[in-house]
Design brief:
Elements (H helix, E strand, L loop, with lengths): L2 H19 L22 E3 L1 H9 L3 H11 L6 E6 L5 E5 L1 H9 L20 E4 L11 H19 L4 E7 L4 H13 L4 H8 L4 H18 L4 H12 L3 H24 L6 E4 H6 L2 H12 L3 E2 L9 E4 L2 H4 L16 E5 L7 H12 L8 E7 L5 E6 L20 E5 L5 H13 L3 H5 L1 E4 L4 E3 L1 H7 L24 H19 L5 H21 L7 E3 L1 H5 L6 H22 L3 H7 L6 H4 L1 H14 L2 H11 L3 H20 L8 H24 L9
Parallel strand pairs: 4-5, 4-12, 5-6, 6-11, 12-13, 14-15
Antiparallel strand pairs: 1-3, 2-3, 7-8, 8-9, 10-11
Length: about 675
C-alpha cells in the first residue's frame, strides 16, 4: 500500500523543514503529495517549495534542493531529487516496495498508527430500510449496494462499524397490506399466518399492495379504513396489529434472504414499533420541550401542534412532495399533530438521539435469525425477557461517534431536520457527524425494460423507464438477480462446456452479483441511473465481470505455473531475493511493470479518498483502470511464454500483487472472484 510511504515522506520532510528554516507547526506548508505526469519525474511529487518561496524569499528550486540535500534516508525510498521547476520528486525503491507487499503480513509496520482524516470512532451505518410490506425492488438494491460498500470502505480504513437496518413496522405501508387482507380478501389472522409460512409471501404482498392502492383511489372515503388500521397498528390493538406483526416479520425475513444473495449483512434490525413501545419518542419529546427546541403553537393553521422552528439553512432545501403536509407552515415543522399523533420526523429524531447515545434509554434485544457466518443477527424488542436464559452478552449497540443514514435524496429535508435537532440541543459534534448518505433513483434502460416486460408508453420520450412499486410496475430484486444469473450461466456454459452444472451456477451467481453491485456504485451518487442488463454483464466494458475476468486471468497464470513449473506464489516470492530485478527496474518494460505495481499499491489511498468524498464510484473507477492496466501488461509482457526465468519471475510477482489488490478492491465492493469464467 502507498499510504505508509506517503506518511514516512511527509514526516521526514516536516522534520527537515523545521530544522532548516525554524518553522513551527502553524507555519509549515501543506505537504500535498501528487503523482508526477511522467515516470522519469519520480513516483511522488511534493510542491511545498512554491508555498514557502515568498515567505523564505528564495526560489522554489533552491528550497527543494536544500530539502533534498538534508532529508537523509527514508525507508522504502531510493532517492529524492529537486526538479528544475521546484518540485521535490521522490523515487521509490521498486524491488523493496513489491517484495515487502508480497511477504506474509503484507506491509512494513509503523511504530504509530498512521494519521487519518477519517475518525476511528464507533460508526453506525443504517441502510436498506425497506418498508416490510412487499418484495424488495431495484431501487432498494442501490441503497443496499451503496450502504454495504460504505460499510466495507470504512472497515477497510480500520473504523469500527455497526450496521443497522431500520424496520418501519408501524407505517402506513404495512397498514395498507393489512387493509388488503382484511377488506379485499377477507382473510383472518390464521389464514394470513398460513400464507406467510409459504413461499414468496413478499411477492404475494407486492400484488396485493398494488390492488389496495387502486381500491383507495376508487373511493376517497376508504382513507378512513387506512387511518383506523394505522391507529390500531401504532397502538398494538386487536387483530389488525397482530396481522401487521405477522406481515412485517415474514417480509423482513424475505428481504434478508434477498440481501444475503448480494453479500449484504447487518448487525442489528431496529424496529419502529419498539421506539413507540419503549417510549423513546416520549423521552425525546421531553428533552426537546425542556430545551425549547419544540413549542406548542397557539395560533394560525398549526394551532395545537408541537412544532420545530426550521432554520433557514434547512428550509432552503425545500421539502419533497411525500414529506409535505398541508397543515404545516413554511418555517415550522410539525413534530406532534394537534390530535396527539407523532409524525415520522419525531420517531426519526428519537432514533437519531439513541444512535448517538443521547437518549438515556436503550432497546431490549432478541436474536432474530442466524447470519451466514453463524453469528446471531439481533433485533430490537420491547420484551426484556426475549433472550433465553444463559444467552451470552449482547453487543453494545448504539452510542456511536458518527452516524451515516443511507436514504435517497428525496429525504434530504428530513435529514437536515435531524441535524438541526441535534444542533439546537447543543450536540454540535454529533450534528456535524450526522451524515445523510444520499443517492438518486434507479430506472431501467429501454432495452432492459422491454426484456423485463415493463416498457411504458409514457416514458417513450425519456432516456429511461421509471418504475413504481406502489403501482405494481417495478422490477423485483430477486427477479432481476435471477435474470442476470441466467444470462451469465449461458455465457459461462458456452465458454466452459466441460464445467458441471453446479459449478456453472456458482460461477454465474458470483458474476451476477458483481454485475449488479458494480453497476450500482460505479456512477456518482447524485446521478440518476438507468440499469441495463447488457452493460452490467459485459465482459469487455466498465463492469463487474470485466474486473472479475482480470482477476481470474491472473489466477490462471499461477495455476499454470504450478502445473508446469511446480511454482506457487510463495515459492516465486521467496526466490525474488536472489533474482536479478532488471525486468522491474530497467527500460520501458521496467517502467511499465512498475507503473502497474504503483497503481495497485494505491488501493488504500483510493479507499481513503472514497470515504472522504463519500463517493464509492471513486473506488469503482480506480479498480476498472487497474484491471485495464493489467490486461495491457498481460498482452505486452507475457509470463508463461517468457523464456528468461528471471524476467518471468518478476513479471509473475507483479501479477501476484495485482491480483491481491484487485481482489481486495472487489471485496470492498462486495464482489467475489470466480474460479473460472
Amino acid at each position: 500500500m502507498i499510504l505508509p510511504i506517503q506518511h514516512a515522506v511527509r514526516h521526514r520532510v516536516t522534520e527537515t523543514l523545521t530544522a532548516l528554516y525554524a518553522l513551527d507547526a502553524a507555519s509549515l506548508p501543506a505537504l500535498t503529495i501528487e503523482v508526477p505526469p511522467k515516470r522519469a519525474l519520480g513516483d511522488l511529487a511534493l510542491p511545498f517549495a512554491f508555498e514557502l518561496a515568498r515567505r523564505l524569499r528564495k526560489a522554489p528550486r533552491a528550497i527543494a534542493q536544500e530539502v533534498a540535500g538534508a532529508l537523509g534516508p527514508i525507508d522504502g525510498v531510493a532517492r529524492v531529487e529537486a526538479a528544475p521547476n521546484g518540485y521535490l520528486n521522490v523515487f521509490l525503491d521498486r524491488t523493496a516496495f513489491l517484495r515487502a507487499r508480497l511477504q506474509p503480513g503484507g506491509l512494513p509496520s509503523t511504530a504509530d498508527p498512521l494519521p487519518s482524516p477519517i475518525p476511528h470512532t464507533k460508526t453506525i451505518v443504517e441502510h436498506t430500510a425497506i418498508n416490510p410490506n412487499k418484495a424488495a425492488h431495484i431501487g432498494h438494491l442501490r441503497n443496499a449496494a451503496l450502504g454495504d460498500t460504505l460499510v466495507r470502505l470504512l472497515r477497510f480504513c480500520g473504523v469500527p462499524v455497526e450496521v443497522q437496518n431500520y424496520i418501519d413496522d408501524t407505517g402506513v405501508q404495512v397498514a395498507d397490506v393489512v387493509v388488503g387482507f382484511r377488506e379485499l380478501e377477507r382473510r383472518s389472522l390464521e389464514e394470513v399466518q398460513a400464507l406467510a409460512a409459504g413461499s414468496r409471501f413478499d411477492y404475494y404482498c407486492w400484488d396485493l399492495y398494488a390492488k389496495v392502492t387502486e381500491w383507495y383511489a376508487a373511493d376517497p372515503a376508504r382513507a378512513a379504513v387506512r387511518a383506523a388500521t394505522l391507529h390500531a397498528i401504532e397502538h398494538g390493538e386487536g387483530e389488525a396489529a397482530a396481522m401487521g406483526r405477522v406481515i412485517a416479520d415474514h417480509i423482513v425475513r424475505c428481504h434478508l434472504k434477498t440481501m444475503a444473495r448480494l453479500n449484504v449483512d447487518y448487525d442489528l434490525l431496529t424496529w419502529e414499533g419498539d421506539i413507540l413501545r419503549l417510549h423513546f419518542w416520549a423521552t425525546a419529546f421531553e428533552i426537546l420541550k425542556a430545551n425549547g427546541s419544540v413549542f406548542l403553537q397557539d395560533e394560525g393553521p398549526l394551532k395545537g401542534c408541537w412544532v420545530m422552528r426550521i432554520d433557514d439553512a434547512v428550509a432552503e432545501g425545500g421539502e419533497s412532495a411525500e414529506a409535505a403536509d398541508d397543515e404545516e407552515a413554511a418555517k415550522e415543522k410539525v413534530i406532534v399533530r394537534s390530535n396527539g399523533t407523532v409524525t415520522y420526523v419525531g420517531k426519526d429524531i428519537a432514533n437519531q438521539f439513541w444512535k448517538f447515545g443521547l437518549l438515556g434509554r436503550d432497546f431490549h434485544y432478541r436474536v432474530f435469525t442466524t447470519r451466514r457466518d453463524g453469528t446471531p443477527l439481533y433485533a430490537s424488542t420491547s420484551d426484556e425477557h426475549a433472550l433465553e436464559a444463559g444467552h451470552g452478552p449482547v453487543p453494545a449497540f448504539g452510542a456511536a461517534g458518527a452516524v451515516y443514514n443511507v436514504i435517497d435524496s428525496r429525504q434530504s429535508y428530513l435529514q437536515r431536520l435531524l441535524k438541526q435537532a441535534l444542533f439546537t440541543m447543543g450536540h454540535r459534534t454529533q450534528a456535524e457527524r450526522s451524515t445523510h448518505f444520499s443517492y438518486e433513483m434507479v430506472a431501467l434502460s429501454h432495452a432492459t425494460a422491454r426484456e423485463l416486460g415493463y416498457e411504458a408508453e409514457a416514458d417513450a420520450g425519456k432516456p429511461f423507464v421509471e418504475v413504481s412499486g406502489r403501482k405494481g410496475l417495478g422490477v423485483k430484486a430477486d427477479d432481476l438477480l435471477d435474470r442476470l444469473i441466467a444470462h451469465a450461466a449461458g455465457e459461462v456454459a458456452r465458454r466452459n462446456p466441460e464445467m458441471s452444472e453446479a459449478d456453472v451456477r456458482t460461477t454465474a451467481e458470483r458474476i451476477a452479483v458483481a454485475a449488479l453491485r458494480y453497476f450500482m456504485v460505479k456512477f456518482s451518487r447524485a446521478k440518476i441511473i438507468a440499469f441495463d442488463i447488457g452493460e452490467a454483464l459485459s465482459f469487455e466494458g466498465e463492469s463487474g465481470p470485466y474486473l472479475q475476468y482480470a482477476a481470474v486471468r491472473a489466477n490462471n497464470i499461477f495455476q499454470k505455473l504450478k502445473e508446469r513449473d511446480g511454482l506457487d506464489e510463495a515459492a516465486i516470492v521467496a526466490s525474488l531475493a536472489g533474482t536479478p530485478a532488471t525486468a522491474l527496474t530497467d527500460g520501458p518494460e521496467g517502467d511499465d511493470l512498475w507503473g502497474l505495481v504503483l497503481e495497485a499499491g494505491r488501493l488504500d489511498e483510493m479507499v481513503e479518498q472514497a470515504v472522504r468524498a463519500l463517493e464509492p464510484s471513486l473506488l469503482a473507477k480506480y479498480a476498472f483502470g487497474l484491471a485495464q492496466a493489467f490486461n495491457a501488461a498481460y498482452h505486452r509482457y507475457p509470463i508463461l511464454n517468457e523464456p528468461d526465468p528471471h524476467v518471468r519471475r518478476w513479471r509473475a510477482a507483479v501479477a501476484a500483487f495485482f491480483r491481491h489488490q484487485l481482489t481486495a478492491a472487489l471485496d470492498v465492493m462486495g464482489c467475489e472472484v470466480p474460479v473460472r469464467m
